[in-house]
Amino acid sequence: MTTIKYGTIYKAIGGYDAVERLNTAFYARVAQHPDLIPIFPEDLTETARIQLLFFVQFFGGPRLYEEERGHPMLRRRHLPFEITPTRKDAWLECLEGALIEVEIEEPIRIAILERLTLTANHMMNTPE
């Protein structure tokens, strides 16, 4: 696992504004990905807003998600959605593209992908 020498990922990438740019780029991809469209709402506004709160907290920023929604309980919250290995990979593909688009540099990009790959693997709940 990559170690961050700048404190938190949140600080290393530039704080809230950088996380917001990443989230926006990420959801632009999610909205167009054929493997993800079936499990996301047509209007991604609220989903993206909640994801932003999560990313801010997950990357070591303020605990915005927890303040609004309580403990993440990610697996439980995602159980209603069929998350297959293909969808997990599609989600990570969208994330990686967004990281590149907003110019998150190495080694931070690798650290983010490593952490969120673990999370994405945990979210899978349906075989192909």
For this structure, the CATH topology is Globin-like
- Catalogue the unreliable spans: none
Shape: globular
Largest sheet: none
* N-end to C-end Cα span: 28 Å
User: What portion of residues is helical?
Assistant: 55-70%
Radius of gyration: 14 Å
User: How many DSSP-defined strands?
Assistant: 0
From N to C, what is the helix and strand string?
HHHHHHH
Category by helix and strand content: mainly alpha
Name of the top-level CATH class:
Mainly Alpha
CATH architecture: Orthogonal Bundle
Keywords: Heme, Iron, Metal-binding, Transport
InterPro entries: GlbO/GLB3-like, Globin-like_sf, Globin/Proto, Globin_bac-like_CS, Hemoglobin_trunc
Protein name: Globin
GO molecular function, one term: metal ion binding
Question: Overview of this structure, please?
Answer:
With about 130 residues, this protein is an all-alpha fold. The chain has a single domain (about 15-125), classed as Globins (Globin-like, Orthogonal Bundle). It has 7 helices and no strands. Helix 6 (about 85-100) packs antiparallel against helix 7. The radius of gyration is 14 Å and the shape is globular. The N and C termini lie far apart (about 30 Å). The mean pLDDT is about 95.
Summary tags:
Globin, iron, 0% strand, transport, oxygen binding, 128 residues, 61% helix
